[in-house]
């Protein structure tokens, strides 16, 4: 247990202060360092590749530091930073360290092009490698590149029975995961597709559904054209309790995309407690939703389901359909009423799509809710931020702030610049 005489003075301090506390003495260091390294933020639009490189080297050097990181918020790392940073010299020791880490991760050939990636400012391989080095990661929010072969293989490798490679140990403790499409794909990369906003290759990320400790999964503004339904039904062993995604990601049927050959009841984890679908067209015009939810709510296969949420249901739906037409969202609400399952229908005014170069938010103007405990519908105003849904007090998710701090005490892009090597040595001294 931390010394109360030390813990209370350092509790609640910002990262700069915590970094300073680590240099007081061994007692202060043992208390402040776990707080300092418990969460890591990287915003690619303002953080440099140098800061990512320095933190990666710190994590590779020190397993004890890597084990302290429990939360990650990583955004927009696949395109050049808007924050200019002078070229930095890569030490031979660091180069050898990273090359060794790539070989240990089992990535053939990646160790041969490390310097080329640094010169080109390509941060994707280093970010993916970093994720394999954080064994106690529990909460992760990430903006995904359109395609990253290495990153896509990490969760798949994590499901194998092998444990000797870092990729086999990645995400084993992960409990909450929020994935967002990083940005729109440029037209020259669209390969002739008519709509490039949802062109993220999600098939390689399907393995996240079976991560052993994952309880909350949110997929925002992601692939529909190359949807998860191409991967087949989700494994019934999934432990996910809270799931948020576009319904067509599982069911298909967008434009010329074929419908999935399986039913929703066959693809959802049976452990679900809450299911959130968002997307106007799919929720208003998908006439199969009523039958799909009837199978879910009446079949007895989802005994823990407590809440169904439809987000971004258009308030202008009356302009497209006559009032006598029974819309799917209305039918699902009636089924939830019958099954005594909480139902919420949210009208969202601002739900950004495509580029996430700035911190993004969701503004919910009204919420039509059926709560079986009250047996009434309620309309209220709510505002949420950052994750596109409710802020869950039980999930242990953390807020991330990187206005002043660049990677846990390494102030590479701020007024106060510390050499990360010197800082690492000062933190490790006295052990």
UniProtKB/TrEMBL annotation:
Sequence ranges of Acidic residues compositional bias: 400-431
Region ranges (Disordered): 352-431
Organism domain of life: Eukaryota
Biased composition (Polar residues): 382-396
Taxonomic lineage of the native organism: Eukaryota, Fungi, Dikarya, Ascomycota, Pezizomycotina
Source species: Phialocephala subalpina
Protein known as: Uncharacterized protein
């Amino acid at each position: 247990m931390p010394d109360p005489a030390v813990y209370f003075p350092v509790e609640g301090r910002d990262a700069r202060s915590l970094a300073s506390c680590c240099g007081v003495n061994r007692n202060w260091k043992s208390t402040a360092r776990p707080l300092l390294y418990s969460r890591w933020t990287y915003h690619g639009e303002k953080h440099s590749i140098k800061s990512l490189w320095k933190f990666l080297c710190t994590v590779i050097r020190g397993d004890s530091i890597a084990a302290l990181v429990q939360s990650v918020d990583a955004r927009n790392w696949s395109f050049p930073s808007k924050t200019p940073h002078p070229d930095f010299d890569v030490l031979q020791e660091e180069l050898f360290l990273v090359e060794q880490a790539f070989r240990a991760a089992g990535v053939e050939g990646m160790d041969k092009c490390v310097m080329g990636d640094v010169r080109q400012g390509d941060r994707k391989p280093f970010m993916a490698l970093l994720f394999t080095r954080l064994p106690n990661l529990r909460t992760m929010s990430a903006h995904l590149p359109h395609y990253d072969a290495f990153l896509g293989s990490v969760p798949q490798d994590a499901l194998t029975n092998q444990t000797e490679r870092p990729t086999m140990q990645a995400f084993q403790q992960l409990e909450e995961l929020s994935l967002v499409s990083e940005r729109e794909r440029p037209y020259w990369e669209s390969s002739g597709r008519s709509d490039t906003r949802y062109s993220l290759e999600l098939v390689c990320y399907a393995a996240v559904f079976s991560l052993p400790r994952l309880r909350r999964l949110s997929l925002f503004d992601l692939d529909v054209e190359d949807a998860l339904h191409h991967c087949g039904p989700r494994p019934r062993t999934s432990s996910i309790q809270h799931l948020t995604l576009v319904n067509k990601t599982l069911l298909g049927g967008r434009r010329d995309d074929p419908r999935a050959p399986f039913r929703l009841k066959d693809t959802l984890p049976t452990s679900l407690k809450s299911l959130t679908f968002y997307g106007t067209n799919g929720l208003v015009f998908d006439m199969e939703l009523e039958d799909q939810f009837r199978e879910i709510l009446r079949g007895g296969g989802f005994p823990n389901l407590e809440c169904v949420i439809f987000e971004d249901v258009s308030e202008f739906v009356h302009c497209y359909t006559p009032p006598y037409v029974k819309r799917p969202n209305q039918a699902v609400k009636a089924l939830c009423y019958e099954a005594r399952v909480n139902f919420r229908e949210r009208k969202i005014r601002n739900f950004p799509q495509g580029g996430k170069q700035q911190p993004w938010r969701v503004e919910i103007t009204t919420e039509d809710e059926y709560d079986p405990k009250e047996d009434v519908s309620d309309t209220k105003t709510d505002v949420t931020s950052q994750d596109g849904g409710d802020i869950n007090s039980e999930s242990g998710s953390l807020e991330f702030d990187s206005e002043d701090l660049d990677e846990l005490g390494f102030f590479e892009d701020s007024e106060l610049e510390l050499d990360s090597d010197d800082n690492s040595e000062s933190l490790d001294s006295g052990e």
